[in-house]
Amino acid sequence: MSDAPHLVLVDGSGFIFRAFHALPPMSSPEGVPVNAVFGFTNMLTRLLRDHVGTHLAVIFDAGRTTFRNEIDPRYKAHRPEPPEDLIPQFALIREATAAFGVPGIELAGWEADDLIASYARAVEAVGGRCTIVSSDKDLMQLVGPKVELLDPIKQKPIRAEEVMAKFGVTPDKVIEVQALMGDSTDNVPGVPGIGPKGAAQLVQEYGDLEAILAAAPTMKKSKRQQALLDHAEDARISRRLVTLACDVPLPEPLEALGTRDPERDTLRAWLDRMGFHSVIQRMALGAAATPRTADEETATAPVGDAPSFGPYETITDLEVLDRWIDAARQAGRCAVDTETDSLNARTASLVGISLATAPGKAAYIPLRHDGTLEQPAGHQLAVDDVLARLSPLLADDTVLKIFQNAKYDLLVFANAGVETIAPIDDTMLMSYAQSAGEHGQGMDELAQLHLDHTPISYDTVTGTGRNRIPFARVPLDRATAYAAEDADVTLRLWDVLRPGLRARQSLVVYEQMERPLIGILAGMERLGIKVDAPELRRMSADFARRMAEMETDIHRLAGRSFNLGSPKQLGEILFDEMGLPGGKRTKAGAWGTDSSVLQELADSGQELPARILEWRQLAKLKSTYADALVEQMDDGSGRVHTSFQMAVTTTGRLSSNEPNLQNIPIRTEEGGRIRRAFVAEEGYVLVSADYSQIELRLLADVADIGPLKEAFALGQDIHARTASEVFGVPLEGMDALTRRRAKAINFGIIYGISAFGLARQLQIPPGEARRYIDAYFARYPGIRDYMDRTREEARAHGFVTTPFGRRCYVPGIREKNGARRGYAERQAINAPLQGGAADIIKRAMVRLSRRLPGSGLDARLLLQVHDELLFEVRREDAQALAELARQEMEQAARIGVPLVVETGIGSNWAEAH
């Protein structure tokens, strides 16, 4: 061995679980879950790349039973079995260790932690040092001058000061604290009522456990003293359980753990079998032997040794800023990020701006940092001077500006007077176009997934809860580390995600739908829509009066008064006092009273649950719209400004919040009243343009159903035609009930409705509903073929595809639990239809954004709500706009049936719709 060996020990067992829960589900080309394997492989790759030690081993648990179970049979006895998707990954992770040429060590009867402790002490004994790749608190007792931990996710060392911060004592006293506080996760009893803080205080005062127990009889009488007296033996057992064994026979001698290069062909073959082709590229092991898998595309990482994240530069001089601007122009690209004083982009003010021109090359420009008494903010550039220099760069069409969630930053810059920023790319939308539903699209999650890096969190620099400070008061060194890293990460994500658009056949979705919508939606958010505040206040008062009347009636039906907003009290009345059937208790022991429970009771003829549902609906409308819209109204303009979320849904649909304008009931009287409160400015009217039955049209097209396609082509009543086809009833003189049943099936099929669901909707026996569905599929077998084909596609690939190429991932499609799998299958069937409709209206919005400026019409697009667009237009231009909208929307896509758009004009939204 070398004179001073540096042994790196990987806590394999601990890392497996962290990787499994940190990374989204992934599958190998063979269909085996591999997210934990992929995380483990990336960690090993990093260790070998960075040459962090002279000796290396991965330590595993050999089994669940160890010598500690002899000390206390309760030890870890209550731990659940590992998740089903993790079980097959244990063996694969051991295969990974062998493929990398790293010793994988385990020993029956001993925990991995004991082996780690014994190897750490062994290397200390020969004058070496040890790094333990783990953040497990149980290993912190080993920390010393020659032993440290390394957090495998955060890549931060854990030394004596970090242990002191966590336990309140030095590493050599950790076992004393653990013995007192116990550990419910492992069934270590400890002393009831003594937590980390109290345990640390006792250890600091008395020294160790035995000294504390010896002093207990003389302590001041208290619950803590009595607990120490009553549970002294539990504390001693706990100390034995938490103390790591440092004298375990070493399965492999230290000399055998020397680091060595892996056998290239063996490693490449194993990585190829797993589908980890980005790792093959990163390690320069040659071309992959098989095509990239969908799962592996998500896990792509940059090739080669990436520069470190930081240190970064703080720009407080105009000459330095000019050098960064020149560097951006020379690079032809620049990642940009803003720091602000609000999450509401429309009202946020700039606090600082970050730039990145290459991986590892990033800087922060503080603009409005206040500083603190302890640390002044220091010299900062004037906002106007910075924007005067940056604006030409932001408008320079030879320099690509890269953002993560560009719409937010564009709105912030617009608030500051910077209107022109082009060309742009958005890493959030690049990822979303490729992987909607597969994982979240936030920067931190994408950085972990694609860069194997955990960015500095906002909470780290600003604090949390009552201790949180505005970002403007964060000291400049910490603000720079956080903010510049965001720009750096964004630039690196672009390097990874841009090639993936073509590989995943998502380039058209991104280029023609998602990216053009950024500016369109930002403009819609800035415009907002006018609301009639007096009408909303009258509505709120009316809702309150009606709710009070309902409450009186509900109390009468219940036989006593109670809090209608209390699920617990309602459950007691329905199931304890009234004895209604079908009640189920939640895990907390209370009766479940959600809407599905109440609806089932209401459908069975119970009046009280039906009235509660009515009261809840009215209460929601009052709080969510009648009251909230007045509060959210801009005092100067009388308009409300929703925020459109571009990367949230699995299907590509937009969503909106603050306020959410997509959940207003359409067919109820109250929903109509709320829509009447959205009005046009004086001299203007609202125009609504709504796709008619667009998802049914897509179903007829993708399932190639001749009779339905013919009905749409002829402009027939599709529900009457379906009723005629399925039930053998002539179109002429068809009764409303038969048409209603056909309509329920038509729309229900899109969402995978069951016989039970149809029966409840039509209030008929389930057997009769089943006959209707069977007759439907018998008449239209192509629909069942489409459903079967789509389910198989989802199971095989993990995603389905819209007619326009958007991938919609379906979590849970391979679930073993039948209920969850069934839900995922229904999602898979609906996603191409709902996603196709979302694609079509996005294409229409892009077409209209190009036509309107040159149309001569005084009109602007205000809202998109699912299949509907809402415009505000000068009264005399309304008919021309309605015709323009109809033409562009109907021509937005060509499918096997005509697209039909219905338009309406009115002074308020209800009239226009």
UniProtKB/TrEMBL annotation:
Recorded catalytic activity of this chain's protein: DNA(n) + a 2'-deoxyribonucleoside 5'-triphosphate = DNA(n+1) + diphosphate
Keywords: DNA damage, DNA repair, DNA replication, DNA-binding, DNA-directed DNA polymerase, Exonuclease, Hydrolase, Nuclease, Nucleotidyltransferase, Transferase
One family name in Pfam for this protein: 5_3_exonuc_N
GO biological process: DNA-templated DNA replication; double-strand break repair
Signal peptide: none
Matching InterPro entries: 3'-5'_exonuclease_dom (IPR002562), 5-3_exonucl_a-hlix_arch_N (IPR020046), 5-3_exonuclease (IPR002421), 5-3_exonuclease_C_sf (IPR036279), DNA-dir_DNA_pol_A_CS (IPR019760), DNA-dir_DNA_pol_A_palm_dom (IPR001098), DNA/RNA_pol_sf (IPR043502), DNA_polI_H3TH (IPR020045)
Subunit organization: Single-chain monomer with multiple functions.
Family: Belongs to the DNA polymerase type-A family.
Protein name: DNA polymerase I
Organism: Neoasaia chiangmaiensis
Lineage of the organism: Bacteria, Pseudomonadati, Pseudomonadota, Alphaproteobacteria, Acetobacterales
